[in-house]
Amino acid sequence: MKVDFAPLNIPLRRRIQTIAVLQWVFSFLMLAQFCLAGFIILAFSDWWVLAVLYAGWLWLDLDTPVSGGRRSQWTRNWRIWHHFRDYFPLSLVKTTDLDPRRNYIFGFHPHGVLVAGAFGNFCTEATGFSALFPGLKPHLLMLPFWFRVPLFRDYIMTGGLVSSCKNSLSYLLSRPEGGHVAVLAIGGAPEALDARPGALKLQLLKRKGFIKLALKHGAHLVPVFSFGENELFDQVPNPSGSSLRSLQERLQCIMGVSLPLFHARGVFQYSFGLMPYRKSIHTIVGEPISVVQAPSPSSEDIDVLHGKYMEALSELFEKNKHLYGVPDDRHISFI
User: Fold this and answer.
1) What value does the mean pLDDT take over residues 42-67?
2) Which of 109, 122, 229, 241 could be a cystine partner for 138, CB 3.0 to 4.6 Å?
3) Phi, psi dihedral angles at 333 (to 5 degrees)
4) What DSSP element (H or E) covers 165?
5) Residue 330 contacts by C-beta under 8 Å, 6 or more apart in sequence?
6) Please, is 301 exposed, middle or buried when counting C-beta atoms within 10 Å of its C-beta (0-12, 13-18, 19+)?
7) Angle in degrees, 0-180, between the axes of helices 209-217 and 299-320, rounded to the nearest 10
8) What three-state secondary structure class fits 222?
9) In sequence order, which residues have a C-beta less than 8 Å from that of residue 85 and are 6 or more positions away?
10) In which region does residue 70 sit, left (phi positive, over 0), alpha (psi from -120 to 50) or beta (all else)?
11) Cβ contacts of residue 159 below 8 Å, gap of 6+?
């Protein structure tokens, strides 16, 4: 295989953008393991008292990820996130004002491989979320497992990440003061296994838990579509029924996370690696779907609202696809 190396005269700003994305990929794929290893080493060193003190703090702080987290505007405004944004580039598009007195569920689609659009738009201020939606606080939901990893949990919470368990979502949606946005990558781990350039299949037909909670708490639903999310990585072919897909699905059931075998480019060459392609990501925040609170929603109530949500998401995609290079004959499909 011929390797296409990057030229030596690349502008400094692009090199900084690459470094910014490289640290994000590292954080996503390996930082948790490094934090866990560091904690274990500390526990068996002469500084073991620090590990014991942190373990005590961890026990006292165990419920924070399910109680709104512990965000830091300082971390969200780090300059490095602006370079991260410009690498792709990444943009957040507002279609209407949102009342800060309400609580919302943003349904983020598609999941993609590493959820780059959701992170850049809702865990940092690089695309100006707070300026676009004054009075609203976004919280990206992440698998509960990651909030058990020492040190790593504290870092990710500074960006506004919280646990994706039911109690965590209910906490955000039940805040009487309003202004909380729970950002859910609805397709989850299974959808990541289908994330590749041109893919428009969304795992949504059987995803109704978020609909039920929206009804129970009267939270408005907002469909969000991120154009370009699936263009960032290629993936080893894994069609349904293949041995690889069966293994990935089995591992997902065991571990709770999917393991897509993705690849794109490297740091110094464009032929292979785990760095995403420089492809534009445009995240469109649609209009809210009003939800009347129903403390004990019936199956019919859930199905009706679920249908409205799918229709609104389809309309959002069709209305904007021509702006972002999607052919007229391409449509999203729900599985």
Assistant:
1) 96
2) 122
3) -130, 150
4) none
5) 200, 321
6) middle
7) 110
8) strand
9) 120, 124, 126, 127
10) beta
11) 71, 72, 75, 76, 119, 123, 124, 140
> What is the DSSP secondary-structure string of 246-293?
HHHHHHHHHHSS----EE-B-SSBSSSSSBPP---EEEEE-PPBP---
Residue 79 is given by DSSP the state T
Per-residue pLDDT band at 8 (split at 50, 70, 90): confident
pTM over 0.90: yes
Largest CA distance in the chain: 65
Q: What tokens does 139 get?
A: 């919280």
C-alpha separations of 298 from 212, 303, 304, 311 in Å: 9, 9, 10, 20
Residue type, 17: Q
Residues 6+ apart with CB under 8 A from 241: none
DSSP codes of every residue in 103-160: -EEEEEE--TTT-HHHHHHHSSSTT-HHHHSTT-EEEEEE-GGGGGSTTHHHHHHHTT
Classify 214 in phi/psi space as left (phi over 0), alpha (psi -120 to 50) or beta. Answer: alpha
Rg (CA), the chain: 20
Six-digit token string for 114: 């590493």
Q: Residue 223 burial by CB count (10 A; 0-12/13-18/19+): exposed, middle or buried?
A: buried
What is the DSSP code (8-state) at residue 11? -
d(CA 158, CA 204): 29
80 residue type, one letter: I
What pLDDT, on a 0 to 100 scale, did the predictor assign at position 251? 85
- With a cut of 70, say whether residue 326 has pLDDT above it: yes
Give the C-alpha separation, 102 to 90, whole Å: 27
**Structure confidence at residue 1 (pLDDT):** 67
- Structure-block tokens of residue 280: 């534009």
